[in-house]
Amino acid sequence: MTFEQWRQQAGGTVRFFSLGRHALVEALKVAGVGPGDAVLLPEFICRDVLASLHALGARPVWYAVNESLAPAVQQDAWPAARAVVAVNYFGFPQRLAPFRAYAARTGAVLVEDNAHGFLSRDDHGQWLGTRTEIGIFSLRKSLLLADGAMIRCGMNGFADRLSAPLAEHGGGYAPAVAVKARLRRLPVGGPQVAKAATTAIRLLRQWRSGSSVLGDDAEAERVIPAPAAPHLGLQRELAAFDPEAEIARRRTAYADVEAFARRHGIRPLFPALGDATVPYGFAFRADDAGRQTMQGWAARRGFDVISWPALPDEIAGRVADALRDIRLVNFL
Ligand SMILES: Cc1ncc(COP(=O)(O)O)c(C=O)c1O
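Above: query sequence and pyridoxal-5'-phosphate SMILES. Below: predicted holo structure tokens.
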């Protein structure tokens, strides 16, 4: 399978962007969200996503999420909104039935946020991000790209509302990631060299800005930190990558790390990897010692262990404790 074949299977109409946040702005526009409108979000989301609402003058309203990352309360108790966002966390399919029921009952437009789940499918074999009329993807989270994101709209009227395609432009939001991709492909020690380069970039960022991660401040809730157009070369890179190999790489990494975690008494967040799930990474819960153990496994393979998400200020105080200790071995 090539990316073009994936696109054919996905059907509908797509547009490309630099960041998932720009794809989400487009998704909300297409859904008819405007100034003052409410957008219903899960209380487990990274704060940056609020910048997409901010761009349209929309405001967030919330539904609580349980330990399995599904809605914690019945949809009939969710607040009213113009659009509702369902998230396929870490590439695992979110069960859409409650969201469809909410949308049918209230007229809200359902957006499938598949930022984490490019190439993943649900138990019926349907590609995540294509299960609703409007889906978004952050391709840069699955592939080593300077940037890359996408919206896909089905054929029931929403596609007609899409903006014109944006021409590729410039070196991208994170040009260092493109360098990392080249290092990773080195014939000897590629993953380790790439990892060392990432560490160096973080140290440099820490030294310059006081924070080793991008966007970890309140401004991230208001500003999308890059122009909307994807970088020059995105289509060429998408045409060159091998989806089957990437699917196999992610699923093998997951099976390996899951077996390792279980041997060390560390609980995966999701009880099982579905037959067609292509995970963003390995999500787990552990104490400090367990995290160290997982860090060791990840470091040997050139992977990072990350904490996700950096929560929006408005909900940071009320998110359940059980959701605070989630960590992710990132397979990027
Ligand atoms: C669930 C979810 N949606 C959307 C986004 C936005 O993607 P991007 O960082 O490419 O803007 C993120 C980013 O972390 C995310 O986690």
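Residues 19-21, 24, 45-46, 48-49, 87, 113, 115, 138, 140, 149 surround pyridoxal-5'-phosphate (CB under 6 Å).
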